[in-house]
Structure to design on (318 residues):
């Protein structure tokens, strides 16, 4: 009894008429290429986009920034923000003046939109300078240690012992009111706080393997700080910067409320609260809308900061 080849063998032949033909071999199953691992920032962005509350905070902030930037297309600065019109003073919200007018007949909505430019720019600029100075001081103290750390951190401790608000008031009182002096005062008040945060972050990464390897192959201190230490502490830097902008806006509003910030007739949310305080009972909209604007921006920034903190947390990585 002759054995016939099994039809599923790879060396099977075609038994039809004509010369025998060997069937082609099936291609072997190739392993699928390994899945590319996401980078740290790509994973953080993916986690951030999944946080609906954080995305909502970004949308809220973008809306406020867009409204402040586009304010010049809808209202006239001289006519609606600065010029006084006693015939229109203390009008309640309604057509023509959707958020009412103040004691000088100026439109509240127009002043809020232009005031957003002052508040947002002061807060962002002050925190950029505070973060920059705090990064240099904190990273230097944490990386080198020894005498440099003792001298720098004792100076930081001396300034951080003074409350930020009191320190800012002292600086503005010495320099005088104004946008530039107010920004400098807030930056100087928050620089020691960020310096301590950056020092702590630097201490956690300066002894990691990649930093030790760079030191072993002869890299200079500046190169190690810029190329290896700084990228590792960017997470806390971004989170603290985002949260710090909200605190700086609140600080600027408080100083303007006390008459030490933006000077009239330029609009600023804290100054608008101060002006509306005397008319709180008969014209509460002067205070309500300015207060809501401050709450709106600080809430958006805090939500974004919380989302960034969760997204950049190493424990949350995929």
């Amino acid at each position: 009894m002759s054995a016939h080849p099994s039809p599923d063998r790879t060396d099977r032949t075609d038994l039809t008429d004509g010369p025998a033909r060997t069937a082609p071999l099936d291609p072997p199953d190739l392993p699928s290429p390994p899945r590319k691992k996401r980078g740290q920032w790509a994973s953080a962005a993916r986690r951030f986009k999944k946080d609906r509350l954080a995305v909502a905070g970004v949308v809220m902030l973008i809306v406020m920034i867009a409204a402040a930037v586009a304010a010049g297309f809808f209202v006239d600065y001289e006519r609606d923000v600065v010029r006084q019109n006693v015939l229109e003073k203390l009008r309640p919200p309604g057509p023509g003046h959707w958020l009412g007018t103040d004691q000088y007949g100026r439109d509240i909505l127009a002043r809020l939109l232009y005031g957003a430019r002052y508040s947002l720019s002061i807060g962002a600029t002050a925190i950029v300078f505070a973060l920059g100075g705090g990064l240099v001081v904190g990273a230097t103290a944490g990386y080198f240690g020894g005498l440099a750390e003792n001298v720098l951190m004792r100076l930081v401790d001396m300034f951080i012992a003074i409350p930020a608000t009191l320190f800012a008031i002292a600086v503005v009182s010495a320099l005088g009111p104004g946008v530039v002096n107010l920004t400098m005062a807030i930056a100087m008040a928050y620089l020691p706080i960020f310096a301590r945060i950056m020092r702590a972050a630097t201490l956690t990464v300066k002894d990691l393997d990649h930093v030790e390897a760079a030191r072993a192959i002869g890299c200079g201190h500046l190169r190690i700080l810029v190329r290896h230490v700084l990228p590792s502490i960017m997470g806390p830097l971004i989170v603290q910067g985002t949260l710090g902008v909200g605190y700086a806006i609140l600080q600027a509003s408080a100083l303007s409320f006390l008459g030490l910030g933006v000077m009239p007739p330029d609009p600023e949310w804290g100054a608008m609260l101060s002006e509306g305080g005397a008319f709180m009972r008969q014209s509460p909209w002067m205070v309500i809308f300015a207060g809501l604007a401050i709450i709106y921006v600080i809430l958006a920034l805090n939500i974004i900061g919380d989302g960034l903190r969760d997204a950049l947390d190493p424990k949350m990585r995929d």
User: Anything to note?
Assistant: The longest helix spans residues 108-144. The two ends are 63 Å apart (CA to CA). The domain at 40-77+106-316 is CATH 1.10.3720.10 (MetI-like fold). The longest strand covers residues 13-14.
